[in-house]
Specification:
Layout (H helix, E strand, L loop, with lengths): L2 H6 L10 H11 L4 H5 L5 E4 L16 E13 L6 E7 L5 E6 L3 H7 L5 E6 L2 E3 L2 E5 L2 E4 L11 E4 L4 H5 L4 H15 L9 H7 L4 H9 L4 H33 L10 H10 L6 H15 L5 E6 L5 H14 L3 E5 L3 H14 L7 E4 L5 H13 L4 E4 L13 E7 L6 H8 L7 E6 L5 H7 L4 E5 L10 E6 L3 H13 L3 E5 L7 H18 L7 E4 L5 H12 L5 E4 L12 E6 L7 H8 L10 E6 L5 H12 L3 H12 L24 H17 L9 H10 L11
Parallel strand pairs: 4-7, 10-15, 10-16, 11-13, 11-14, 12-13, 14-15, 17-22, 18-20, 18-21, 19-20, 21-22
Antiparallel strand pairs: 1-9, 2-3, 2-5, 3-4, 5-8, 6-7
Helix pairs in contact: 8-9, 9-23, 10-12, 11-12, 21-22
The structure holds adenosine-5'-diphosphate and magnesium ion.
The site of adenosine-5'-diphosphate (ADP) has 16 residues, from helix 12.
Length: 703
């Protein structure tokens, strides 16, 4: 049989798989071919080398294996409660009951009293005494079955598969057969050099060992090799693509640092940049100087000062004769950016335009003309920037804030607004762990602002229960008396939208009573309000006309009210970590000490407890994202949901960071030496590309 076709052989050709089993394998596990079956890895192993004494059995043992002699059987109970009980005696004087509720006749007929058996199963406890329901039985004399290894693989299966005898054991037999027939068809994936550098076992051996390990050491070696390979191939695809993109597209070259940038930096910057901000500006400067198109992700916690970095980037573009635009996900945010850019530029002679859905026709026309003539260099806006009417004379830089709120199509449209693609800087305040960034955004360059401006007082976070409410309200009154403002946030979770809405309204009523007008003024903002109404309430709060903002999570993104010093989060146990962190970031923006108070009930799941404890212990978004990754797994973190790159079979981005970092730097070394993968020793890798069609450039790969 030819090599490629072996892995692609339809599953129904396998001995023991007829049409109906094949059908069910496809439906239940997505296994269509021999290859699919081989890549259906065990999720656990049972140590079959270990034999227990009956006296050692305890409730925390998952599985036990015992050698012993069956001394007798007995039928107990009648009708539906009937069961067969056999007694097993080991060499150490222990006695254990083996119990069957089904298949009694068959067992009774076949069991051989007085002969030594190997018995295996999950122990059960009744009145503190162990028994073994439905154990596997094997005569000691027959126990050397061909596919039995020291560590027995356990495969995921389903109820339906079990009806077709495809439980873990059934699958194991199929996989054993495939590997027997096909081991010599398994080709090496990794280049020789990589294998010898890391002392990896061959692919063939790794696949054999991961299914049927000889011992735990070899199993572990097989696992790390296959994990490495999995991550290596993803990195290869990402970095290869990144490189092709760089070769295909020239970026505009910003060859000078000119008057605007220098004047701003030397005379108008209202504070000293942090070291991290300087580092990022330098990185952007290098990218835009290089002649290649920049695709950079800027991660920085809330309040880390991304806006000024964006502004300096735009000034750099303007110095070189290019226009820039900055896009925000909501009107409120766009307006906020507009004001903060204008504020920073107030003593300089450069205009900033604002384009949103509510920009009036006349102003819109003026903007369009100024953009087309090249007279207007800096533009801030919402999705309105994407519309076809918006045309630039020479767009050189696009800055996107809060990146995951934009769809693929929208990004591509922006990209096409210039002949030469503009440089792209994507800014996000949702910190994600490094390993995740390497995988999700592996084809972007990543910059991180990992320090807050000096003099910022860390937010004090407290976790309190309902019995603390009176004291809480007292505290809020004190803060308001000092001229501060307060957020009180309620959860809004889709499944229980009605209930949450009720919670919010009850809360609002309660707060309005506790903080009565005219002394206190309370705003409310929630998802059921019209956008204009919401904006108006936000404005009132921002302008200090109201003291308390009662809201659902609609305020989560980027809203800046420096005078707000307290964030109260109700039912905090219902929020995810990254959401809690984002919400907390709404305060601590001014000079005052700020507080985040997490209110919860006493009934907390262990995960909720970890979340709240983490919030109390740290203000660092990256640390929080690491905990989030461990709690929820990579596929469930914010912004990662639709990403196919995270469907990993073996590797775990929370645990296998070291392997990932190795794999990535290994790919970097290979591509450095052989960018097009034309060298003989990298032929295999090229083959992988050609067969998976991964060198294809698609729009969604471009930010
Ligand atoms: P974010 O990264 O969340 O977008 P901003 O850019 O809105 O943060 O900055 C938050 C606040 O910190 C703003 O008021 C900004 O003026 C201020 N700021 C930014 N950089 C510095 C700095 N280096 N020193 C002092 N204040 C700074
Ligand atoms: Mg911001």
């Amino acid at each position: 049989m030819e090599r490629k076709s072996f892995f692609e052989t339809p599953i129904e050709y396998l001995k023991g798989v007829g049409p109906s089993k094949a059908e069910i394998l496809k439906k239940e596990l997505g296994i269509f071919t021999y290859g699919d079956l081989i890549y259906h890895y065990p999720f656990r192993y049972i140590d079959r080398t270990r034999f227990y004494r009956i006296s050692e059995i305890s409730p925390d043992l998952q599985y036990i294996q015992i050698k012993g002699v069956i001394t007798g059987t007995q039928l107990i109970g009648d009708a539906r409660k009937k069961r067969l009980v056999a007694t097993l005696a080991d060499d150490h004087g222990g006695h254990l009951e083996l119990v069957w509720f089904q298949g009694i006749k068959f067992v009774e007929k076949n069991i051989q009293i007085g002969r030594p058996y190997i018995v295996f199963g999950k122990p059960n406890f009744f009145n503190h005494k162990p028994n073994l329901p439905h154990p596997e039985l094997e005569l000691l004399s027959e126990s050397k079955k061909e596919f039995q290894t020291a560590l027995q693989p356990v495969y995921s299966s389903t109820e339906k598969l079990k009806l077709f005898f495809l439980d873990s054991k059934g699958l194991m037999k199929l996989i054993y057969t495939v590997l027997q027939q096909g081991a010599h068809f398994i080709d090496e994936t990794l280049p020789e050099e990589v294998l010898s550098q890391y002392k990896f076992m061959s692919k063939r051996e790794a696949l054999a060992q991961i299914h049927f390990p000889s011992d735990s050491r070899l199993l572990q070696r097989a696992q790390s090799r296959l994990k490495f390979e999995e991550l290596f191939l993803i990195q290869l695809r990402l970095l290869f693509n990144k490189q092709v993109k760089k070769r295909l597209y020239n970026g505009s070259t910003f060859s000078v640092v000119g008057e605007l940038f220098n004047s701003f930096y030397n005379h108008h910057l209202p504070f000293d940049l942090t070291t991290a901000q300087k580092k990022v500006v330098r990185e952007i400067r290098q990218d835009t100087y290089s002649g290649l198109q920049m695709n950079r992700l800027l991660q920085g916690d809330v309040g880390s000062g991304k806006t000024v970095v964006a502004l300096m980037t735009m000034l750099l573009a303007a110095d070189n004769g290019y226009q820039s635009c900055m896009m925000a996900p909501t009107e409120i945010l766009a307006v906020q950016h507009y004001h903060s850019l204008r504020g920073m530029l107030k003593n300089m002679n450069i205009e900033v335009g604002l384009l949103t859905g509510s920009t009036k026709k006349k102003e819109r026309t003026r903007l369009f003309e100024a953009l087309l003539s090249g007279e207007l260099k800096l533009l801030v806006g919402t999705h309105a920037l994407i519309e076809d009417g918006v045309q630039f004379q020479n767009l050189g830089m696009v800055i996107i804030d809060e990146q995951h709120r934009f769809g693929v199509e929208q990004r591509a449209k922006l990209w096409r607004k210039n002949n030469n693609p503009p440089h792209i800087l994507v800014m996000t305040a949702t910190p994600i762990p490094r390993t995740l960034a390497m995988t999700l955004y592996g084809d972007l360059d990543v910059s991180v602002i990992d320090e807050l401006p000096a003099g910022r007082k860390p937010i004090t976070t407290l976790h309190k229960f309902e019995n603390h409410r009176l004291r809480l309200f007292g505290f809020l009154k004190e803060e308001i008396a000092r001229g501060r403002q307060v957020y009180i946030v309620y959860p809004l979770i889709e499944e229980s939208e009605k209930l949450d809405y009720l919670d919010l309204m009850n809360g609002y009523e309660h707060i309005s009573n506790t903080f009565p007008a005219p002394q206190y003024r309370v705003s409310i903002v929630h998802g059921k309000m019209k956008a204009a109404e919401k904006d108006m309430e936000m404005e009132r709060f921002k302008n200090g006309e109201t003291h308390i903002m009662v809201a659902t999570t609609v305020i989560e993104v980027g809203v800046n009210v420096p005078n707000a010093s307290v964030m109260v989060i109700e039912n905090a146990e219902k929020f995810g970590l990254s959401q809690l962190h984002q919400l907390r970031g709404r305060v601590g923006r001014g000079a005052e000490q700020s507080y985040c108070i997490l209110m919860s009930s006493h009934k907390l799941s262990s995960e909720a407890k970890i979340r709240l404890d983490t919030m109390v212990q740290t203000n660092n978004g990256f640390e929080i994202s690491e905990v989030d990754l461990r709690l929820r797994g990579p596929g469930n973190l914010e912004g990662t949901q639709q990403s196919g790159v995270l469907d990993l079979k073996l590797a775990d981005l929370a645990k296998d960071q070291q392997i990932l970092i190795e794999a990535r730097s290994c790919v970097e070394r290979i591509l450095d030496e052989d960018p097009s993968l034309i060298m003989e020793k990298n032929k295999k890798l090229k083959y992988y590309f050609e067969n998976k069609g991964v060198s294809e450039i698609t729009w969604e790969k471009i930010s």
